Amino acid sequence: MTGSDVLTILAEVFIAFAGFTGIVATLGQRSVGKWRPVDVIRFRALLQASLGGLVLCVLPFGFHHFAVAEAITWGVCSAILAVYVTLFILTFIRNQVKLRVSDDPDFVPGVRIILVLLTGLVVPIQALNAAGIGLEHTFSGFLVGLIYVLVLCSSMFVLLLRFVRTETV
C-alpha cells in the first residue's frame, strides 16, 4: 500500500467522522437545546478534528501536484500538523477547563493529562520529521500524527455516542 493509498483511506475515515457528527447532532437533539455544554465542546472538537484531519490528508496531494520534492512535502506537512495538534489540544482543554468538573458526568481524572502527554509525544515527532532529524522528512513520521488525530476523533465520537444513548433511552 502506498502513502497516497493510506492518505486516501484516512481522508475517507475523517469524512465519515464529519458526516456522522452531523447525524449525532440530529440524534442528540442539539437543535432543541438538550445538549450539555460539555457535549457541545466535544461536538465542536470532533468536527474540528475530523475536518482538520481531512485537510492534513489532502495537503500532501497539493504539494505533489505542484512538483514539490517529497522530503519538503513531508517536512512542511509535519510542521503544519505539529502546529495544528498543539493549537487543537490547547483550545480543547481550555474549553473544558472553563466548565467545572462537576458539570461533566463523563469526566475521568487524568484524561487531560493523557491528552497532553500524547500530544507531548506526537508534536516532537512531527518537529523532528519537519527538521529532518532522525526521521529525515518521512511519510511514516507524518503518519504518526495523523493516527493521533484519528485517535482523538474516535475517542470524542465514542463519548458523543454515549450521550445520545443515555439521553434517548
Overview of this structure, please?
There is one protein chain. By secondary structure, the chain is an all-alpha fold. It contains 5 helices and no strands. The protein has helices spanning 3-27, 37-65, 70-98, 111-131, 139-168. The radius of gyration is 17 Å and the shape is globular. Residues 165-169 have low confidence and may be disordered.
Give unreliable regions as ranges.
165-169
Structural class comes to: mainly alpha
Q: Estimate nothing, just give the exact number of structural domains.
A: 1
- Tell me, rounded to a whole number, the average pLDDT: 83
Supply Rg. 17 Å
β-strand number: 0
Instruction: Kindly state the percentage of residues in helix.
Output: over 70%
Biggest pleated sheet: none
H-E order: HHHHH
Strand content: under 5%
Shape verdict: globular
Summarize the topology.
Layout lengths: L2 H25 L9 H29 L4 H29 L12 H21 L7 H30 L1
Helix pairs in contact: 1-2, 1-5, 2-3, 2-5, 3-4, 3-5, 4-5
Short description:
With 169 residues, this protein is an all-alpha fold. It has one domain.
Comma- or semicolon-separated keywords:
169 residues; mainly alpha; 5 helices
